[in-house]
Specification:
The protein has 296 residues and is of the alpha+beta class. 27% of the residues lie in helices and 23% in strands. A hairpin with a 2-residue loop joins β10 (194-195) and β11 (198-199).
Length: 296
C-alpha cells in the first residue's frame, strides 16, 4: 500500500482530504464558510456537487490499492429491476418506464466485507466529513447508515459492464471515485426528472429511448467526491471500456439514527451471501452485534 504522510490528526478526513482546495476543517469562518456557501447554492440550484481531487493523490493511491486488495472477495451481483428499483409491472403499457427491466452487473463489497481498520472505513466514519455532507444538504441531522450491509460499499464495474438507469432509494448519494475507467464509464443523468410532485414521464421516456439531448455526463477522475440527489434524477454509468475497472466507494447516510434496511431488500441487492448471514442471525439473535465505530 502507498505510504501516506499523516499529521497526527484523529479525524481521518483531515489526513486524506486536500484541505487547501476544500477547507472542510472549519466551515464556520473564512475560506471554509465561503466554500460551504458555494456548495449549498450549487446543490440548491442543480442538485449535485462534484469535487475533483477532493482526496489527495497520495491518499487516493492508497485507497485504490486497498480496494484492489479487497475486491477478490467481492461477488459479481446481478440485479434486474425497473428504473424505480421495482419488479416489472406486466399490467402497464409497453411505453411505461415501469414495464421494462434493466440489468445491472457489478462486483460489490458490502459494508461487512470492508474491515473497520481500512482507510476507506475510517474516512467514511469521519465526523468532519459527515458534518460537511450534512451542511451541504442543509439537513438538521445526518447520520452514517447503521445497516451492516449498506453503510459503505465498494463497487467495481469491469470492462463491458455499466450501471443501469435508475433512481436511488435515498435522496442524496455520496460517492468517492477510487479508480477511473480507461475509457467510457461516464456518470450520466437526466436532471430534475423527478420531484415531489411526480415524474417528467415524457423526458424520461425520451431518455430511455436514446435521446440524451437533455442529459448531462461527468467524466470523473480518481479522488473525486460527488454529492448527487439521485432520488430525483434518473442516472447511471455508461459502459466501461479499456483494461481496468471503474471502482467507486458509495457512502450512505440517513437523517434518522440507527436505521437498518429490511432483510428482503438486502437479499435482493447482495444475494445469497447476505441471505445466509441473515438466516443465521434470525436463528441465533446473539450473532447480531452492533459494529463499533472508529472516529479516526
Amino acid at each position: 500500500m502507498t505510504d501516506i504522510a499523516f499529521n497526527d490528526r484523529t479525524d481521518m478526513a483531515l489526513n486524506l482530504v486536500d484541505l487547501e482546495r476544500y477547507p472542510i476543517a472549519d466551515l464556520d469562518r473564512g475560506k471554509g464558510a465561503a466554500f460551504l456557501l458555494r456548495c449549498q447554492q450549487q446543490m440548491d440550484a442543480i442538485g449535485w456537487c462534484s469535487f475533483d481531487g477532493f482526496v489527495r493523490p497520495d491518499a487516493i493511491a492508497a485507497l485504490s490499492a486497498e480496494a484492489k486488495g479487497l475486491l477478490p472477495n467481492a461477488e459479481t451481483l446481478t440485479a434486474k429491476r425497473t428504473i424505480h428499483q421495482e419488479a416489472v409491472d406486466p399490467t402497464l403499457p409497453d411505453d411505461d418506464p415501469g414495464s421494462r427491466a434493466y440489468v445491472h452487473r457489478a462486483l460489490q463489497l458490502a459494508n461487512d466485507q470492508i474491515p473497520a481498520s481500512t482507510l476507506i472505513q475510517r474516512l467514511y466514519r469521519s465526523e468532519r466529513l459527515t458534518e460537511f455532507i450534512r451542511r451541504v444538504q442543509r439537513k438538521a441531522e445526518l447520520y452514517r447508515c447503521a445497516d451492516a450491509f449498506q453503510a459503505l460499499n465498494i463497487v467495481a464495474l469491469e470492462p463491458g459492464m455499466q450501471h443501469a438507469w435508475h433512481y436511488d432509494t435515498t435522496e442524496c448519494t455520496v460517492t468517492l471515485l477510487l479508480q477511473a475507467a480507461e475509457r467510457g464509464g461516464l456518470f450520466t443523468f437526466l436532471p430534475h426528472s423527478r420531484s415531489e410532485a411526480g415524474e417528467d414521464r415524457e423526458a424520461v421516456c425520451r431518455f430511455l429511448a436514446g435521446d440524451r439531448s437533455q442529459a448531462e455526463s461527468l467524466s470523473l477522475d480518481a479522488g473525486t467526491l460527488t454529492l448527487f440527489r439521485g432520488g430525483y434524477a434518473l442516472h447511471g454509468v455508461t459502459r466501461v471500456e479499456g483494461g481496468q475497472p471503474r471502482v467507486t466507494a458509495v457512502l450512505t447516510y440517513d437523517q434518522q439514527p440507527d436505521r437498518v434496511i429490511s432483510d428482503e431488500i438486502n437479499v435482493r441487492i447482495y444475494g445469497q451471501r447476505a441471505a445466509r448471514i441473515l438466516e443465521d442471525r434470525n436463528r441465533n439473535p446473539a450473532l447480531t452485534k452492533p459494529r463499533k465505530e472508529e472516529h479516526s
